[in-house]
Amino acid sequence: MRLLTLVLASILLSFGYIQAQNKNSNNLNFKNMINSDSYTFKLSDKVTREKVTFKNRYGIVLTGDLYIPKNHSGEMAAIAISGPFGAVKEQSSGLYANQMAERGFITLAFDPSYTGESGGEPRRISSPDINTEDFSAAVDYLGLLRDVDRQRIGIIGICGFGGFALNAAAIDKRIKAVATASMYDMSRVNAKGYNDSMTKEERTQLLEQMSQQRWIDAANETLTFKATGLPDSLTGNEPPFVKEYFDYYKTPRGYHPRSINSTGSWSFTNPATMMNMPIMTYINEISPRPILLIAGEKAHSRYFSEDAYKAAAEPKELVIIPNRVHVDLYDRVDIIPFDKLDAFFTNSLKK
Fold first, then answer.
1. Where would one find the signal peptide in this protein (predicted)?
2. pLDDT at 57 > cutoff 90
3. Which domains does the chain have, with CATH numbers?
4. Is 0.90 topped by the overall pTM?
5. Which band of pLDDT confidence, cut at 50, 70 and 90, is reported for residue 5?
6. pLDDT-derived band of residue 149, with 50, 70 and 90 as boundaries?
7. Are 283 and 310 spatial neighbours (Cβ–Cβ below 8 Å)?
8. Which pLDDT score is estimated for 30?
9. 64-94 pLDDT, tens per residue?
């Protein structure tokens, strides 16, 4: 019983999911009013947005939104942005791209492989390798644009894609600066549980369950998906972080029909590769390129940013936003330190 509780609380928490009793499940009316072309934020009148596609090195076609300042001239600095884990470009990453383009950067918010409008089959899966590669593919695309100075490209990762962004920066030396917001290390939380609370025995049992599930999936020629996910309504007894996720993904504030976090759940065996491929191993090799880590003071995920800061070499900076939780950094434009991000990338990507 402890294993089930622990695994759900750690893995599903990291995905924005938790098993919760739903006494009043219903399809909220607002969902019928939101179509797949909807965005959770308003496009700045200082920015243009264009849908683009590009391939990663695995041949998966990724779809993104390219944001360009209307008053741009000459070769400019650019930023690729993705996350949160299970979200789509019409949510947080697009909001960040819109804000940073308004401040003078060419930005690309993209759906990672197997998610949103990007390619990859089957759906509702992830990969520490491929999702890291997705950032490098975005850098490929940006560096080929006429208006982008390929020596001045940075990346931003939100939530679980904060960890992938750091991993990408460690590998890909073309990335000149990296910032994260409400960062999660997906490999760590899956391998060790929330706050590293999973025992060796519990890890072994979980891997055994997923290993046996593969026989079932192979026989059925289809993936089995988790029965757990955010409910359509709350009982009031849920943990605070569940209410935070619900308030974003299940309400008009952040709901999107293509977002796994809004509408579905991950495959049962999805955590397996995350559990065995730590992505923070070489974070100190990002240096001498700068790192900016942003987290809420009261965020359940704060320790990931703090530990990443300790592991990274200089130059690095950790910014803690007072009295704020994990999801506040998804879309609260009055809370997210965009001026700080502007200054960080302006300085880091200067000619």
1. 1-20
2. yes
3. 2-16+41-203+271-348 (3.40.50.1820)
4. yes
5. very low
6. very high
7. no
8. 62
9. 999 999 999 999 999 999 999 999 999 999 9
Q: Which of 192, 54, 30 is nearest to 117 (CA)?
A: 54
Over residues 241-266, the pLDDT tens digits come to: 889 999 999 999 999 999 999 998 89
Q: What is the 3-state secondary structure (H, E, C) of the chain?
A: CHHHHHHHHHHHHHCCCCCCCCCCCCCCHHHHHCCCCCCCCCCCCCEEEEEEEEECCCCCEEEEEEEEECCCCCCEEEEEEECCCCCCCCCHHHHHHHHHHHCCCEEEEECCCCCCCCCCCCCCCCCHHHHHHHHHHHHHHHHCCCCEEEEEEEEEEECHHHHHHHHHHHHCCCCCEEEEECCCCHHHHHHHCHHHCCCHHHHHHHHHHHHHHHHHHHHHCCCCECCCCCCCCCCCCCCHHHHHHHHHHCCCCCCCCCCHHHHCCCECCCHHHHHHCCCCCCHHHHCCCCEEEEEECCCCCHHHHHHHHHHCCCCEEEEEECCCCCCHHHHCCCCCCHHHHHHHHHHHCCC
- State the CB neighbour count (10 A cutoff) for residue 256: 24
